[in-house]
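Team,

Forwarding the record for the chain on the shared tracking sheet. I've put the sequence and predicted structure together so nobody has to dig through attachments.
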Amino acid sequence: MATWRRFKRRRTALFGLGVYVAILLMALFAPYLAPRDPATQDISKGLQPPGAGFLLGTDEYGRDILSRIIYGARISMTIGIISVTISAVIGTMLGLVSGFYGGKTDAVIMRIVDIMLSFPGILLALIIVSTMGRDIQYVMVAVGISGVPNYARMVRGAVLAVKENEYIEAARAAGAGNLSIIARHVLPNIFAIIIILTTLSLPGSMLSAAALSFIGLGVQPPTAEWGRMLGDGRGYIETAWWISTFPGLMIFVSVMSINLFGDGLRDALDPRLKT
């Protein structure tokens, strides 16, 4: 309750949470909200500007932009959430093992992480997608793996601090094994850090996935996805600005709302603010 009281004092965080929930609901109820089938083509209605017939206009194939944006929320949100989950699970496991056991195990894991960090995240994702294939599941895996080093280093640092506490030594003296100590004492005490990092990593994952789709290495047509729609409309930016503008605005609004929510959550969970 104290965490919620601190969180709701941040109006920008509440606003960000509200906007993000609205986008998630839009994605969930896309079949009921979209006025048309996002994949239906009608060349005779191609490149129509926003108006009464098509609120956000149509693309070069006559597909309704509004419907494609609504359905695109499903793909963009799914990619972001699943890729962050992949990063969090793998990175947390590596960070826990590295920080808790130390020694050679720590050295090997951290050197692997250092090698991964030597590549920019988007470049690492680009290499993985180019190697594995151009499909949505590979995009999620690529973006997820590119985010693993951040989790591994952050979790390792938190574990190094937690395992020096006296209750860890007390658990050892009571006969608890390493796995029991990690599950019952270490992980619960660093869980807030993982939650905050996950929230703040989600916008970056969405942007990376959109960037891959923008250059043609992510989601493939005719699937509606915001980054892909943005890339498809770049050739019409002077004659049909709406094709790229509205998907770009949705990416901006989504990323901004999650950032606002993440900042508020970070402040609410900060142990220094609990007194």
